[in-house]
């Protein structure tokens, strides 16, 4: 069964967020802040989108995906 477009975007954002946190933890490098500025409006939007994507993926672990209704 294929994932919907929303699932793919959420997975991409969660992966980017995880990689960013890995870089922060191991090397002290925050790529979002480096490229978009430290807590600028656009960086806050990116952090927010990553957080929403994480919540959607968390929900999809326990019940049907809220974006495509697949189990």
Largest sheet: none
Q: State the shape.
A: elongated
Distance between the first and last residues' Cα: 10 Å
Total number of domains: 1
Total count of helical runs of at least 4 residues: 3
Helical content stands at over 70%
As a whole number of angstroms, the C-alpha radius of gyration is 14 Å
SSE run: HHH
Q: Give the strand tally.
A: 0
Overall mean pLDDT stands at 89
Beta percentage is under 5%
What does the model show?
- The protein contains three helices and no strands.
- With 71 residues, the protein is mainly α.
- It has one domain.
- Helix 1 crosses helix 3.
- The longest helix is centred in the first third of the chain and has 23 residues.
- The mean pLDDT is 89.
